[in-house]
Amino acid sequence: MVEGLFETFLSGTELSLIFAFVGLFLLMGEALVPGGTLMVLGVGVMVAGVTGQVFGFDGLLPLTVLTGVYGTIAFAGFKRFDFYGDRGEQTSGAESLRGETGVVEQTVTSQEGEVKLDSGGFDPFFMARSATGDEIPEGERVRVVDPGGGNVVQVESVSDDEGGDEKSPADR
């Protein structure tokens, strides 16, 4: 029945070619909606379509099975190689931000500012305030001294000789 609908609307076009183009469009969609879902699905559909073209599979059932197989392989590869760099970096609560280091993205004062934390989870950008009241310029390394519930963190400047890449033993 479904194959009949495809034949009615797309007579003369090979189904495997349609799969290849749909997969390609899904991969292009990944650029607009990053996160990996469209990448995994797009790779599965596109490679199934290309395989169908090469080996002459043009039925819906073989292409669907191939999509599942290739999609599973793409998912495993996507998770294994961690393309978005988010493995193990999710924060478990505001208190886990204490002692974290990052870089000032927008000059931090006692009233405003923004920092990008090295291990800030899915969205590493946080509104920040200077804990000392001093202005901290863009590009300077900082350490979180008070996570403040996670919405607005208080930071202090970290000099290079303080080893700003790690939490202090008291903060672990």
UniProtKB/TrEMBL annotation:
<feature type="transmembrane region" description="Helical">
    <location>
        <begin position="61"/>
        <end position="78"/>
    </location>
</feature>
<dbReference type="InterPro" id="IPR012340">
    <property type="entry name" value="NA-bd_OB-fold"/>
</dbReference>
<feature type="region of interest" description="Disordered">
    <location>
        <begin position="137"/>
        <end position="172"/>
    </location>
</feature>
<keyword id="KW-1133">Transmembrane helix</keyword>
<keyword id="KW-0812">Transmembrane</keyword>
<dbReference type="GO" id="GO:0005886">
    <property type="term" value="C:plasma membrane"/>
</dbReference>
<feature type="transmembrane region" description="Helical">
    <location>
        <begin position="38"/>
        <end position="55"/>
    </location>
</feature>
<keyword id="KW-0472">Membrane</keyword>
<dbReference type="InterPro" id="IPR052165">
    <property type="entry name" value="Membrane_assoc_protease"/>
</dbReference>
<protein>
    <submittedName>
        <fullName>NfeD family protein</fullName>
    </submittedName>
</protein>
<feature type="transmembrane region" description="Helical">
    <location>
        <begin position="15"/>
        <end position="33"/>
    </location>
</feature>
